[in-house]
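Hi D.,

Good news: the full-assembly prediction came through. Inputs first.
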Amino acid sequence: MKSRKRERDALALAEQLHSAAIHLLRHLRTVDDATGLSAPRLSALSVVVFGGPVTLGELARAEQVRPPTMTRIVTGLEKGGLVRREGDERDKRLTRIRATTKGQKVLMAGRSRRVELLAGAVEKLDSTALADLERGAQLLRELIDSMRREK
Amino acid sequence: MKSRKRERDALALAEQLHSAAIHLLRHLRTVDDATGLSAPRLSALSVVVFGGPVTLGELARAEQVRPPTMTRIVTGLEKGGLVRREGDERDKRLTRIRATTKGQKVLMAGRSRRVELLAGAVEKLDSTALADLERGAQLLRELIDSMRREK
DNA sequence: AGACATCGTTAGCATAGCTAACGATCCTGC
DNA sequence: GCAGGATCGTTAGCTATGCTAACGATGTCT
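Then the structure:
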């Protein structure tokens, strides 16, 4: 009856991960408020800052969102002076999105604030728990990737 | 320099957990689409189904949302015939919310679907990885709880 | 050259989040 | 017992995010 047990475990795990994801985001959102950016904008900005200039379509796929949605998110970031739209020389259909210096600064400031919030919680973990949680985060990323590939 | 290293670890972990939470919810949302319910509605319904009759204010606090927002979520669920509003005898200001039989059924069906989606991914994990992920999920819950208590 | 494909945008819709303001009800102090 | 303040849920009105459909501009292929 091993597969039955695994199925029950999967159910429980799904519920826990789902709930944890919801509540984690709600808490981080309060911190992210200090940047003046919503979660989707902050996430997109992060991709642009670390992923170099990127086309709008690539950004939409990276964020698992449709192009019209990304158009508006980028427009919002652009109005805030955090990213710039640039045309592509070779393929004039493309819009390349690049972070401005201000965009980089804002993202870094947000990172510090999140760290400060999490620091208090993480400090209480012993080394073993910290390592376990890192392992769990990696497994979660892999799980999400495998789900994405199957879709 | 241990605290410096821990701080870096906390930063990386915060980024990873933030990103993982966003992407996990995006994937689960596609599955939840089969219920015809959005994530907030599904989450609220879950509280009502398992938490018995509950006032609107309690529900709003449980979901970390303001009362006006919960009013509309409940209205949506009510129009779908998934919950009922009932007045309270003792305190006529209160609105008690109770799940209908249909609401219970829909929630259960959604649970099955989520499990089916995750099953494929979880099946590929060996027992060690599964145990590690469960441990990680538990640590994450504890982390969130400790953050909430400090706020 | 013409047909088709791809990219980003616009338009229009639904949902979810917020604050402010309000009516109804409850509780308290006098 | 009643006048004033507190609490509960709702309504109104704003912003942001998500979607599909449709379109113009550009690229590609035959």
